[in-house]
Design a protein that fits this description.
There is one protein chain. The protein is an all-alpha fold. It is built from six helices and no strands. Helices cover 55% and strands 0% of the residues. The termini are far apart.
Length: 208
């Protein structure tokens, strides 16, 4: 059974092996199984060489904050970059994910009220215990794509660049995501007053 699973993983990830013994599962020995599992482990480690870190997520959240600042200035918002929230230590990736999920939900509300369409993303809110760093990173990039899209509706909108902030902790990402959440809540308040503002800010109705 272990041999079959190892062979299935090799096949799924299209991992080549130097030995043809993997094609002889009926005669597989414990050594064959061990070598197959070792090969799988080595190749999967190579595939996952880049482990997403809190710094990667912080980079994306900061980019989203900067895009939101550009967007809020078109609404003449004074606090287009709100004050940073109080730092809370020992935050976990799951808590960061939960805060980013709130950001995305506010984004959905903004686009719905504006008559715009948002990517239909299924959030992994039900089982946070199974979250991986890549889940948090993926969610942050989705948010960036959406706020950059909203910003692109502004005539003469700038394309902003991300910068790597160096080592960051989940608590720092959580704090930064709090700034983004405040920006989105502020934008939502503007949209409630004028639902068509974003949809027609560029002079034409936008569709995705």
């Amino acid at each position: 059974a272990a041999y079959d699973r190892a062979q299935a993983i090799l096949k799924h990830y299209k991992i080549k092996t130097d030995s043809d013994v993997l094609n002889q599962k009926n005669n597989a020995t414990p050594t064959d199984v061990y070598n197959a599992i070792l090969r799988v482990n080595q190749e999967l480690n190579a595939l996952l060489y880049h482990q997403f870190s809190p710094g990667d997520v912080y980079e994306q959240v900061t980019l989203a904050v900067n895009y939101m600042a550009e967007l809020l200035q078109t609404f003449n918002a004074d606090d287009y970059i709100p004050d940073t929230k109080k730092f809370i230590s020992n935050k976990t990736p799951s808590e960061v994910y939960a805060r980013l999920s709130k950001c995305l939900k506010v984004l959905r509300s903004i686009t719905n009220k504006s008559g715009l369409k948002l990517l239909n993303v299924q959030l992994n809110d039900n089982d946070v215990s199974r979250l991986t760093p890549s889940d948090v990173y993926d969610l942050s990039t989705i948010i960036v794509s959406e706020v950059s899209y909203l910003n692109s509706l502004i005539p003469g909108a700038k394309v902003l660049e991300a910068y790597y902030p160096g080592y960051k902790t989940p608590s720092e990402v959580f704090q930064r995501a709090g700034v983004l959440l405040d920006q989105l809540v502020l934008l939502k308040s503007f949209v409630i007053k004028n639902p068509k503002r974003l949809n027609h800010v560029s002079g034409v109705s936008q569709k995705r």
